[in-house]
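#struct-help
A.M.: can someone run this one for me? Single chain, 171 residues.
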Amino acid sequence: MGDDWSNADYPVNPSEYYGIEPPVGSGPIMAPPKSAEEFDEEIDDTDLPDCMGSVLDTLKTLKGNSVANIIQKFAGQLPGYKLKFAQELIGGDEGLAQVAWVKNEMIDGYVTINFNTHRDVIQNVTDLAAATTILHESVHAYLYATTKMILQVRQLLTQSFLKNISSKKLG
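D.P.: on it. Structure tokens below:
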């Protein structure tokens, strides 16, 4: 009655099975860090103003509630990307409405969260508001990276399916 699937000898490496290499490393699919502490240590905050950098440093040291811990509580796992915090000046009416956002790109495995440095936006920012925004945007970064990964895997599976179909003779 059919094949005995328990004795099947399937390749372990996805590239052997699908004939293509999965996009691991520089894109959205990366090996997750070994620990929340490792994720927090790898956050790039070199472009943040000192006041926001010190808030982020405090968040990194919170036991069980660091940036990585909050993402892990939301997602159920440590993220397979790295975070970078940066600043950008947006002026005009648009600038007054936008405090922070996830940049719509991933470079070298980093998802970047930008903070608007417009003086009318940041002039009365408290440490609590900065911390809340950092954590809020960190969850957005997870959602962005996960969506990007799903779309990339979908594209790889579609390519593999089309490649396999085109190699078969019909009829």
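A.M.: thanks! Strands lie at 82-88, 100-107, 110-116.
D.P.: also worth noting: Residues 26-118+125-164 form one domain.
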